[in-house]
Amino acid sequence: MAQLQEAVRNLKQGKGCNFSILGDAGTGQSRLIEEFRASLDLNTIQWREGHAYAYAYAQHMPYFPLVDLLSRALHIKDGDSPDTVRGRVESQIRYLLENEEGVIPYIGTIYSLSYPEEKWKSFG
Which of 61, 90, 106, 112 stands the most exposed, by the fewest C-beta atoms within 10 Å? Predict the structure, then answer.
């Protein structure tokens, strides 16, 4: 908990980081995360959470934890149509980033969306 709280202090100074909470089932990862999150002011901190699942469930899904994290952040749900996914990728990336130019095609390809070549050229 102390390491997580230190990370929040650093975040407020502009120093971001990522944490992975790992352990066998029943060792308290969920409770740690729940208690830590409850200690935060979510009006001043943007909380992003992704999950990794058992190998048998996600083995055929490349970058599954990243896709899970992005889907939660972009409000994309299993079963959303490609048009819905495209709309959410584009609108949410524009909302989350000051300069989204060139980012959208990269995120979109994770969801099997295609973009015209000129969209790719703007990244750099």
Answer: 112
In order, the DSSP letters of 31-83 are HHHHHHHHTS-TTTS---------HHHHTTSTTHHHHHHHHHHHT--TT--HH
Burial class (CB in 10 A: 0-12, 13-18, 19+), 100: middle
**In terms of domains, do 67 and 106 share one?**
yes
| Secondary structure (3-state) at 93 | helix
- In this structure, which amino acid lies at residue 46? Q
What pLDDT digit, counting tens, does each position of 22-55 carry? 888 889 988 998 999 999 888 887 787 776 666 5
Q: Taking a C-beta distance cutoff of 8 angstroms, is the pair 51, 91 a contact?
A: no
Range of the domain at 88: 49-124
**Residues 5 and 20 placed together within one structural domain of the fold:** yes
Q: Give CA–CA dist 25/48, Å, rounded.
A: 22
Question: Quick one: 6 and 38 in the same domain?
Answer: yes
How many other CB atoms sit within 10 Å of the CB of residue 104? 22
If asked whether residues 77 and 108 sit together in one domain, one would say yes
